[in-house]
Write a structure and sequence with these properties.
Layout: H1 4-28, H2 51-56, E1 62-65, H3 69-78, E2 97-100, H4 107-113, H5 119-138, E3 141-142, E4 151-153, E5 159-161, E6 168-169, H6 198-213, H7 226-245, H8 258-272, H9 279-303, E7 329-330, E8 338-339
Antiparallel strand pairs: 1-2, 3-6, 4-5, 7-8
């Protein structure tokens, strides 16, 4: 009889290969439409018949995405939030989704092309990303596609989430995800019995690790090859099997540097082990760790103020009140999975 762990790892390997091919194809093939969009319009949007755009006071160029009723619905559910890319409705003629054209680009590209970004700024981005995901979870939305290329930088270098084409609203516990982020960010199959928010929580762990370490887990830089992505995915899969079977906290995830592990190591490990139900608690703990780190490293921070003077990087995240996530998932061994909040409804 085949060892169940061997079978799971073999399935993971096949899935990782397929996942890599799928992600590559969807990035380069406009016909699939997931990441295809027009070039940002250089023309003024004045005269557009769109009340949201007019009332926003935005005067920059507009980025048009192909019509997508599902993504449009998600934007409407999320509403306005400082850590979510602004949504200006749809073009009245074409139905395309209208967003601001953020010319600073995505966060992964910026990290690769600017190797001397202050740690305080990278932590600022980590908190802003987590705040954005916490807002999604408070609106009962699962991002389902967490990765650094789905984080954009505003003109003043703050981080905002984008791309909700595969996001899920009010997912049941047993929801089966058909798509997700690149393999390096993918939640291991071994966590399939955990909360559906596991995809976001695990992806946040990878993002936080990258921002702290300037490399991907189980890799030495920010540019892993497809085979290296699969290798890292398999490493996390092997660890997730052990985490599920024991709860002593002694995990073998890739470690942060010792000087950062004492502040943020437990948070990263809890993301990798899916110890958070939702991102609201994660944000609270991350902010506390950031405050503690700042207090103890203020002399170092003052000494780095001269770095990147040509780029006005933020050193503090935008302030966002954290809305507690109301719907908490749990499942009973004797019945189907339900929401805790469902038990209190009349």
């Amino acid at each position: 009889m085949l060892n169940s762990r061997f079978v799971l790892i073999a399935v993971t390997s096949v899935a990782a290969v397929g996942y890599s091919i799928y992600f590559l194809v969807r990035r380069v093939s406009p016909s699939l439409g997931f990441f295809h969009s027009k070039e940002p319009s250089n023309a003024s949007h004045e005269g557009q018949d769109n009340s949201t755009l007019t009332s926003s006071g935005y005067t920059g160029p507009i980025f048009f995405k192909p019509p997508d009723a599902k993504e449009e619905a998600i934007y409407k559910i999320l509403g306005s939030h400082p850590c979510i890319v602004k949504y200006f409705g749809t073009d009245p003629q074409t139905g395309e989704i209208m967003l601001p054209s953020l010319r600073k680009g995505d966060l992964l590209f910026h990290l690769k092309t600017h190797p001397s970004i202050p740690l305080a700024t990278r932590l600022t981005w980590a908190i802003e990303i987590a705040q954005g995901v916490a807002h999604l979870h408070a609106r009962d939305v699962i991002w389902a596609d967490p990765h650094l290329q789905n984080v954009l930088l505003t003109d003043d270098y703050h981080a905002v989430l984008c791309d909700f084409g595969i996001s899920v609203y009010q997912a049941p516990y047993s929801y089966k995800f058909s798509r997700g982020p690149p393999p390096m960010y993918a939640c291991p199959l071994g966590y399939i019995a955990r909360t559906p928010r596991r995809k976001d929580i695990f992806g946040l762990g990878v993002i936080l690790f990258v921002l702290l370490s300037e490399r991907f887990p189980f890799h030495d830089d920010l540019s892993p090859s497809p085979p290296k992505e699969i290798e890292a995915m398999q490493r996390h899969e092997e660890i997730s099997n052990d985490v599920i079977s024991r709860d002593d906290g002694d995990f073998d995830f890739d470690k942060l540097s010792p000087e950062l592990h004492r502040y943020f190591g437990n948070i990263v490990n809890k993301c990798f082990a899916i110890r958070y139900q939702a991102a609201d608690v994660l944000v609270t703990e991350l902010k506390e760790a950031f405050s503690h780190w700042r207090k103890e490293n203020e002399p170092i921070l003052v000494g780095t103020d001269h770095l990147n003077v040509d780029l006005p990087y933020p050193r503090h995240p935008v302030h966002c009140p954290i809305e507690p996530v109301q719907r908490q998932y749990f499942r009973e061994s004797w019945g189907p999975p339900v929401y805790i909040s469902d038990l209190t409804q009349d």
